[in-house]
Design goal:
8-stranded mixed sheet, about 425 residues, 8 strands, Alpha-Beta Plaits, alpha+beta
Length: about 425
């Protein structure tokens, strides 16, 4: 089985955008969660006692318990906390404790209370089993149990109301001898079946949506880079191209063409993948965007002096990746203004960086020797006293003064 990819900031941002509001979670708990059964009992109490219900404290206890538990469960879910099985029993326990003080042991002898307790326990156990995706059999059993409690709840509360002041056990079995009541039973069972099927379909659709979303996020990372996608999500629109300061780096494999002619396409791909992975991993969180093209990698970094250290680390990692194959690597770095953003038609756009800074970094990379980094401008590198060289770059009227760094391999994990 393939190991799951660690959650990154893009995952967190997407999950935050997809998360429902607290109000939505509250209403879901109130009308589809365990509080739905308490809400049904509250309606039963209102019909049972009529206006007299307002003089009874247990109605207010039940109302506070219903709303309070829904709000509490919604708040836990909204803040990313797990709703364990026992959290759905807190309201029932509080209600039973208060009612015991008011009515005494007679509380558990009333049909409507017995109905409420049994249905709530069935629903809570069912929901607990549903939360076991690694055990599909138990999850299915939990779905059947919880949806049965929901679907049969209205019928059982109706029976408790209809058998008021009667022998409940005897009356329960005689209740279904009446044709309309038998129809209600059939209707409730049909409702239970529909709830189970709809839940399973919704769960399957959710699984497909999650898998598709993961694919979209992966493709977005590949095509634009996680930083670009996160910015688009924050602003809810694509970013028009604009002028910004960036550190642009190029790292290129020397001798790649000749080497690739003597190796199979599979070996070439394996070498390039190893080269790409080592280079990008060495850049760490500083990397804004990367673009891989054949034996070359373009790196977009913040326009800061520490970009020099980042590129030195990336070059060192690249050298370590290809040197066992008797290949070498050179690099160029230039800090300055670029035009960065989305280019193209409204229906087909790419995200890229263009400008003289990009061209200069490319020219320096082309002139760098194996295991060498040429970088500039000198006043933005924060590295006084380094060796310098003049580079007559293509398209430049004047030579470029660049700092010259020779990479020194260090054991992995050390800088």
């Amino acid at each position: 089985m393939q190991a799951s990819r660690p959650t990154d900031s893009l995952d967190q941002q997407v999950n935050a955008r997809l998360r429902d509001s607290w109000q939505g979670m509250f209403l879901t708990e109130l009308f589809q969660g365990v509080s739905q059964l308490a809400f049904l009992l509250l309606l039963l109490e209102a019909i049972w006692d009529g206006v007299a219900m307002f003089a009874k404290p247990d109605v207010y206890v039940l109302f506070v318990m219903t709303m309070g538990q829904s709000a509490w469960l919604a708040q836990r879910q909204f803040t990313g906390q797990d709703n364990f099985w026992w959290t759905r029993l807190v309201g029932l326990v509080c209600y039973a404790a208060v009612e015991m003080l008011i009515e005494g042991p007679a509380f558990f002898g009333k049909p409507r209370h017995v109905t409420f307790v049994v249905l709530t326990l069935c629903f809570v156990v069912g929901r607990s089993l549903e939360m076991r995706p690694g055990r599909p059999g138990l999850a299915l059993l939990g779905t059947v149990l919880s949806r049965t409690a929901q679907g049969l709840g209205p019928l059982f509360f109706y029976i408790a109301l209809d058998l008021r002041d009667q022998d409940w056990l005897a009356g329960f079995f005689n209740f279904f001898n009446d044709a309309p009541h038998a129809f209600l039973l059939a209707l409730s069972i049909t409702q239970v079946g529909a709830l189970i099927v709809l839940t399973l379909v919704a769960r399957r659709q959710r699984s497909l949506i999650d898998a598709l979303l993961e694919q979209f996020k992966t493709l977005s990372r590949w095509g634009f880079g996680a930083n670009v996608v996160e910015k688009v999500l924050r602003d809810s629109q694509t970013q028009a191209a604009s002028r910004v300061d960036r550190a642009i780096g190029f790292i290129d494999v020397r001798g790649f063409t000749a080497w690739s002619e003597n190796h199979t396409p599979e070996q070439v791909i394996d070498m390039l993948n190893h080269f790409y992975a080592a280079t990008l991993a060495a850049c760490g969180p500083e990397l804004i965007k990367s673009k891989m093209s054949g034996d070359e990698v373009l790196l977009v970094l913040p326009a800061e002096a520490k970009a020099l250290l980042t590129l030195q680390n990336a070059l060192q990692a690249a050298v370590r990746a290809v040197s066992p194959l008797q290949l070498s690597v050179g690099a160029g770095l230039w800090i300055g203004p670029v035009v960065e953003g989305f280019f193209g038609t409204p229906s087909n756009q790419i995200h890229d960086v263009i400008g003289d800074t990009v061209n200069t970094a490319k020219r320096l990379c082309d002139h760098a020797q194996g295991e060498q980094l040429l970088a500039g401008p000198l006043n933005r590198l924060g590295a006084p006293g380094v060796a310098q060289t003049l580079v007559q770059a293509k398209g430049k009227h004047q030579p470029i003064t660049a700092a010259c760094f020779q990479v020194t391999l260090t054991p992995p994990g050390k800088s």
